[in-house]
Amino acid sequence: MALPNSLTVPALKRRIGKELAHDDQLLGELLEGAFKQAQTPAPLGTGRLLLPDPALQLDENGNDVSEPVERTFAVCGRHVVIPDAREINSVVVDGKSDSPTTIEEDTGYSTMSRDGMVVRLTLGREHRYLWSQELGEAPERLNRPRQHTVTVTGKFGFIELPDDLRNAIYALAARNFYERDAGYADQVSIAEGTAVQAYFRQLPPPVKLAFANYQLPTGLIGLA
After folding, report:
1. What is the DSSP code (8-state) at residue 127?
2. H/E element holding 70?
3. Residue range(s) defining the domain that contains residue 136
4. Which run of H or of E encompasses 206?
5. Do the domain assignments include residue 120?
6. How many domains does the chain have?
7. 193 and 129 inside one domain
8. Pick from 152, 180, 170: which is nearest to 206 by CA?
9. Residue 56 lies in a domain
């Protein structure tokens, strides 16, 4: 699994006090696992796309020259939740049909952004024919919205991880490392005669807070 450039095993080793290389493979796996969890849906992750898609291709001036990619969504209704678009080049409804419809921002659709990324696209009311029912439809379909595909061409995902999110991923990887040392027990004695160290089966508070800061509203489709 690819990792952002800002997440590295040496940085994780500094945080947990490891110097030798014999743990590098394990720490790399734990770091990948923590990053994967950070992208999972709430409440255990952010539910966000934290890697750029397409992968960055920088020219000599540091500009991203990668080619935009297509993402197609099957939708019923006006709202389309999209995975963190930082750039939208085109939006086409029913692109593979006999009558594809290209729509433009402001006149054809509006967007909702979070953390500088477009997370929802809403078809304009003037394009109601794209989702409303057709005359003459069978009675059993009268109360069902029509399904369409919406193809968004653009660039998606975070280019750089925010500092608090990167720190949370390191903290989660470190937590998983120490839980492994504890034999995945809920409690373990650190040394003879010392107090018992407890590990609880939940996200550490700083990690939970950082993930929550980037989670999207649960009613994203229904928001006006």
Report:
1. G
2. strand 69-76
3. 69-156
4. helix 205-214
5. yes
6. 2
7. no
8. 170
9. no
Backbone angles phi, psi at 48, to 5 degrees: -110, 160
Rounded CA-CA distance 133/141 in Å is 8
89 and 148 share one domain: yes
Q: Closest by alpha carbon to 115, among 87, 84, 89?
A: 84
pTM score of the predicted model: 0.82
Residue 37 CA from chain centroid, whole number: 10
Alpha-carbon distances, residue 35 vs 44, 80, 95, 115 (angstroms): 12, 26, 34, 18
- Alpha-carbon span 85 to 76, nearest angstrom: 20
Beta bridge partner(s), residue 9: none
Nearest CA to 160 out of 7, 32, 2 is that of 7
Decide if 115 is inside a domain.
yes
pLDDT tens string 78-91? 899 999 999 999 99
pLDDT of 99-135, one tens digit each? 898 999 988 999 999 999 999 999 887 766 665 655 4
DSSP character string of 177-204: HHHHHTTT-SEEESSTTSPEEE--SS--
